[in-house]
Design brief:
- The protein is an alpha/beta fold.
- The chain has 3 domains: 84 residues, Winged helix-like DNA-binding domain superfamily/Winged helix DNA-binding domain (Arc Repressor Mutant, subunit A); 102 residues, D-Maltodextrin-Binding Protein, domain 2 (3-Layer(aba) Sandwich); 104 residues, D-Maltodextrin-Binding Protein, domain 2.
- It is built from 13 helices and 11 strands.
- The longest helix is centred in the first third of the chain and has 28 residues.
- It is elongated, with a radius of gyration of 30 Å.
- The N and C termini lie far apart (63 Å).
């Protein structure tokens, strides 16, 4: 089998001739003798059996076939340069991939500024997963994630000891929210547990695969609808499908539009009105990518933007 005629060097030659307008100028840019450049160009045309350069006139110009080769070839050159930079930076301590588990109480849109900053300077590939309740810790403990953002403080850290580290992000305040069209909206506050149990609850399904699934704020009713994320839970409650506790920080727009109202309840202390959140990672984690994220997550402005 004959060797494939195209190489990065041949693509760089075509690119230099096109930009500089001639073989002599291209030779100067590439640091090679003009005769070597001319020979390499003719050899490439012979190997491809295609005329790439129009040699008539003072300046060498590309033929339509040459222009097509240059257009696609520049993509390959850019990819090769990007690969070279990534390999060099991985050798300097950057991880090949960083897996981040994000709890559904942290809206993904709030992470976008961090993701944009990271992708602009790091060669590490990111893999983001959305988790719920104990699933955020489960992803870390089970090896599905290297970093968890928005995990509940404590979690399995008590049973897995020093194998993990955490950093406080802030806390969520949970409130009982209902649609103004829901029957409970017209009941005087504070609502009793019996009143709340009499109505359908919207609950978020735990995504744990190994750890025991967790529940939060359940009132013991048999009538419930399980949804995959906190955003879905809020939407379902705003639609009047059911009731339940939701983070106050996530329903500001719904409150402003009159889609939800907050009701005081007798059970707020029992179900935990506030929930501290943390970022968590393995104690033995090493690498510039995870260090980058931990530095950013230590900034008060970043924590405020994520948790509010």
């Amino acid at each position: 089998m004959s060797a494939f005629p195209l190489s990065l060097d041949s693509l760089r030659l075509v690119d230099a001739v096109a930009r500089r307008g001639g073989f002599a100028a291209a030779a100067q840019e590439l640091g090679r003798a003009p005769s070597a450049i001319t020979y390499a160009a003719r050899r490439l045309e012979d190997d491809l059996d295609v005329l790439l350069f129009d040699r008539r006139g003072y300046r060498a110009r590309l033929t339509p076939a040459g222009e097509e080769l240059l257009r696609e070839g520049r993509h390959l050159l850019a990819a090769a340069d990007d690969l070279r930079r990534r390999v060099q930076r991985v050798a300097q301590g950057w991880e090949r991939e960083l897996r981040i588990a994000v709890d559904s109480v942290v809206p993904f849109a709030r992470l976008l500024p961090l993701l944009e900053q990271f992708c602009a300077q790091a060669p590490t590939q990111l893999r983001i997963s959305h988790e719920v309740l104990g699933g955020t810790w489960d992803a870390l403990v089970g090896g599905r994630a290297d970093l968890a953002i928005g995990a509940t403080a404590g979690g399995p850290q008590a049973t897995h000891g020093s194998g993990f580290r955490t950093r406080e992000l802030g806390e969520l305040r949970f409130v009982f929210a209902v649609s103004p069209r829901h029957p409970l909206a017209r009941c005087p506050a504070p609502l009793s547990v019996a009143q709340m149990r009499a109505h359908r609850q919207i609950v978020v399904g735990d995504t744990s695969q190994r750890l025991a699934p967790r529940t939060a704020g359940l009132l013991g009713t048999t009538d419930s609808v399980t949804v995959p994320s906190m955003a879905d839970k809020i939407a379902a409650q705003a639609a009047g499908l059911g009731v339940g506790y939701v983070p106050l920080q996530l329903i500001g727009e719904h409150l402003a539009r009159g889609e939800l109202i907050v009701k005081d309840t007798e059970s707020e202390r029992e179900h935990g009105e506030r929930a501290p959140l943390v970022a968590a990672w393995r104690a033995d984690a090493r690498g510039k990518a995870i260090d980058w994220w931990l530095r950013r997550l230590s900034a008060a402005a970043v924590r405020q933007a994520l948790v509010g």
